[in-house]
Amino acid sequence: MQSVSIHINPKASLQVRNVGDEKTPVIIIDDFAMDTKPLIDYACTSVNYGPDSTSAYPGVRGTLPRNYVREVLNKIYRLLFQVYSVPENLGMRTVNTVYSLISTPVDELVLAQCAPHFDSNGPFYLAVLHYLNPGNFCDTGLFRHKPTGFEKITEPRLHEFIQTSKTFIETHGEPPQKYIDDSTGHYELYDRIKYKSNRLVVYPGCLLHSGLVDPGRDINSDPRTGRLTSNIFVDFKEL
């Protein structure tokens, strides 16, 4: 596998935002890499893209270069333990490491792609999102489930979330076949993580979220001109 030389910016800007009523910490690091061009060039020349069989992601994905993943995680590893209070006896493992491009037309969306989602309800499952291509692309929206007030769908909350969601849909009908980009009767958009090239974001996988997709701007499967991101999903388990 071809490698990608990437250097972490020692002057990168770090902030930790506590979002929503539940004050969930979200890590935001601006100007993370010294140069994203090698990573973008690799995405354009050395990656095979296709649907992600492990999720309902509305687009195509392709494998990230391993050395890039290793360098990112080496840089933020201790920060993850600190911010998310990960027990020291747990070890980190990668679950999925992919480039992502939104490419699904509105008329091909399935129900799960028309609402906010969570990646996992594991207590220490984290999503590491790196915005790559420059451009005016969509933000990542954070949502609150109105029937329950939940912002995170943890394991103890899962049954109530599913049951109340079913009841809401039975009463009010399914959501329209469109990308969710604002508050609805079912979900409240309470915060957003702005898209900014070379911004690295970390958030718990149990946080309800969605790309606030503008179909005319964001649906593009070309890694040179589309909303190219890298997505590293990690979990912490007993060693």
Notable features of this structure?
single chain; three-stranded antiparallel beta sheet
How would you sum up this structure, described in words?
This protein has 239 residues and is α+β, with helices and mostly antiparallel strands. The chain has one domain: Jelly Rolls. It is 19% helix and 29% strand. Strands 1-2-8-5-10-4-3 form a seven-stranded antiparallel beta sheet, with helices on one face. The radius of gyration is 18 Å and the shape is globular. The model has no long low-confidence stretch (mean pLDDT 97).
Supply the CATH class.
Answer: Mainly Beta
Number of separate helices: 4
**Helicity, as a percent range:** 10-25%
Order of helices and strands: EEHEHEEEHEEEHE
- Rg to the nearest angstrom? 18 Å
Q: How many independent structural domains?
A: 1
Secondary-structure content class: alpha+beta
Coarse morphology: globular
CATH architecture: Sandwich
Distance between the termini: 28 Å
Question: What is the strand and helix layout of this fold?
Answer:
Blueprint: E1 13-19, E2 24-30, H1 37-45, E3 59-63, H2 66-83, E4 90-102, E5 126-131, E6 140-145, H3 158-172, E7 187-193, E8 200-204, E9 209-211, H4 215-218, E10 229-238
Antiparallel strand pairs: 1-2, 2-8, 3-4, 4-10, 5-8, 5-10, 6-7, 6-9
